[in-house]
Amino acid sequence: MVEKVKANCNYSGRVVEGPTNPIVTPLLTDLYQFTMAYAYWKANKHQERAVFDLYFRKNPFGGEYTVFAGLEECIRLIANFKFTEDDISFIRESLPGSCEDGFFDYLRGLDCSEVEVYAIAEGSAVFPKVPLLRIEGPIAVAQLLETPLVNLINFASLVATNAARHRFVAGKSKSLLEFGLRRAQGPDGGLSASKYCYLGGFDATSNVAAGRLFGIPLRGTHSHAFVSSYMSPDEIIDKSLQSADGSSSCEDFVSSVQTWINKIQWSNSLRDIFGETNQSELAAFTSYALAFPRSFLALVDTYDVMRSGIPNFCAVALALNDLGYKAVGIRLDSGDLAYLSCEARKFFIAVEKEFGVPGFGKMGITASNDLNEETLDALNKQGHEVDSYGIGTYLVTCYAQAALGCVFKLVEINNQPRIKLSEDVSKVSIPCKKRSYRLYGREGYPLVDIMTGENEPSPKVGERILCRHPFNESKRAYVVPQQVEELLKCYWPGSSEKPREDLPPLKDIRDSCIKQLERMRPDHMRRLNPTPYKVSVSAKLYDFIHFLWLNEAPVGELQ
To answer: Residue limits of the Nicotinate phosphoribosyltransferase N-terminal domain (predicted)?
Structure first.
């Protein structure tokens, strides 16, 4: 990944930077988008005004909510959508030789100045069938945007949702660290996962590039290799360490650590837990503390957690305490995490009482080792003392579900509503340009999302409105909303004079996401058997959907 590409687009007095990943260009699309664009152009249909909805059909991971992510990258692409001469040469080579030169001249001048994009705010909780994006513009350019927009939203929303689900199971008080770069699907998968896990509620990442590009807090200490690379304390050459306030200096920190390990070994409350600890591990911990006295956190399971790792850590932490430093804690990367975290906590509390070190019993405990939703839930049920979780593979690869399944469907052309039919009712599209609203109840929870025709009056607070299931006539309910929130806002007005929503910083999106999920009703959020959130259409739109359905569906004939 390279530096962010500077924009060539300036609108509303602001420069919009290009996509974070320079691979995201107009060529990042499927071939059939170009063949359709040529066919539209050949038929002189390419400038016809079309409306497309981008949405998904089913919430991921067996849940009943999704976190919308990827909007900023979509706007960056749209703002900088322009074919280079090299792009046009390659497209010419890739299409049949019968394609006329005029089409490539058309591509040469193509941009998104005639496109308008309406979207739900990034970081919002979203639900099936409700448009995440509405794209309005000439049909050919809108079609060329389909694949990259779906690509930019699909994984982003999936991994943000995965992160939010992990946050829900872990609880608000725990720190969540994304450690997935090495297991992610390539560099872009790693960077995207780091960004959108943070958006979904994680606190930090180990990914340095993501920290630089997106301003995500970084966390990390050392691996087992660092511990096993030491053979003896004799390898430590510079043994001095200045006190935290700079007023004094310990000339032989190694000896100070050795003194503390001896005190721990012979203490009344701890002597029966362990005997001789691994001295090479103690040397590694000591060396790391000398390098990072203000942020010392040790990986304690290289040899034996309770018989070596924990006592060695405590010796180093106590030697640091003598100089005014406070160790951060330990990381457990294997074994029975619930049991070991509880035993480690008991050890820390015993050290605090034995040696009178205030706060030592509250030393941080981080757990890693292929964690996922299920293991977090199991730890909660068993009881544990973990403060932070380092989560990688199952999080960033979205191991439990491969894709969100976003689709991009034509719903109107030249002001004429269009519908896509299917024998599978879940794949029938909802036609026409629509407006979407979220209706809230007396307790402040969202009750239902409702779609209406563009020209229908908006739902009003305190006024009863009939909400209908789009395809099941028996599912309907009246709602008297206490708050009405319109969901689709303009994020790209093209050359029109319409006001445009700002793209907030990533941290603000994250904060908004967390607050919105906290506002959801708990039964919609639970991990097992959640209550489905209701998505509806107005009575008028319901009638129109079924009128158009009957009008477009061919009538069979029995022989």
So the answer is: 27-154
